[in-house]
Amino acid sequence: MTKNNCIQEKINRLNELAAISRQRYLENGGNPQLSVGTLNNNDCLNEWEKEELRNLFKQVVTDENIANYQKINVSWQGKFAAK
User: Fold this and answer.
1) Chain segment 9-65, per-residue pLDDT in tens
2) Cβ neighbours of residue 53 closer than 8 Å, sequence gap 6 or more
3) Does residue 25 contact residue 71 with C-beta atoms inside 8 Å?
4) Contacts by residues 13-19 (CB-CB < 8 Å, ≥ 24 positions apart)
5) pLDDT above 60 for 71
6) Coil, helix or strand for 8?
7) Phi/psi class of residue 43: alpha, beta or left (left: φ > 0; alpha: ψ in -120 to 50)?
8) Number of domains comprising the chain
9) Biggest alpha carbon distance in the chain?
10) In the prediction, which pLDDT does 43 show?
């Protein structure tokens, strides 16, 4: 398995966990207009799933990935500062 395939599998699992959380939130009468997640106290994952999500996120979102993203997607402040 190549590195890209491994990362893609982890991203797919992150998406699955997000979909599970969203579905549980809606099944429990959550507002479909609101975001699901810990920041909004709408977390619908069990402790094991939360731990898996944290670990996968740490593996997929690295400092190198963030730096590459920032290099490609300069903020509007950065665009004005560069001129």
Assistant:
1) 999 999 999 999 999 989 988 888 887 766 666 678 999 999 999 999 999 988 888
2) 14, 17, 45
3) no
4) 13/52, 13/56, 14/53, 14/56, 14/57, 14/60, 17/45, 17/49, 17/52, 17/53, 17/56
5) yes
6) helix
7) beta
8) 1
9) 51
10) 75
| CB distance 43 to 37 below 8 Å | yes
CA dihedral 46, 34, 66, 19 (to 10 degrees): 50
Query: For residue 24, is it left (φ>0), alpha (ψ between -120 and 50) or beta?
Result: alpha
Question: What is the domain range of residue 69?
Answer: 3-81
Q: C-alpha dihedral over 67, 72, 76, 82, to 10 degrees?
A: 90
